[in-house]
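Aim 2 progress update. The chain analyzed this quarter is reproduced below.
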Amino acid sequence: MPVFRMCLFSEITNRQPCLRLTEVARTRLRQEGDKYRSFWQTLSTVIREERFRGLYSGLTAHLIRQIPNTAVTMVVYESVVYLLTRSRIDADIEHEEDE
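Predicted structure tokens:
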């Protein structure tokens, strides 16, 4: 499975539906005015006025920004693991040759 598809699948199925709620509430709470006062009040207001669809508005733009970041993180992680594993194997081989 290509890295891009793996990242997309991971973002959509694992974290985004839950984290999106906090993003929406945080963004709305930053707006000026007295309409949004607390986390739960903000979520209930959004659901009442915009239905559940309002909780996921902007998800596409968020994923477009987040997926490349996740892909880069995964590539760097895999590269570091490979390099560390490779250096450990090389060190073990040198140690065996010395004995």
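The chain is about 80% helix and 0% strand. The radius of gyration is 22 Å. These observations will guide the mutagenesis experiments scheduled for the next reporting period.
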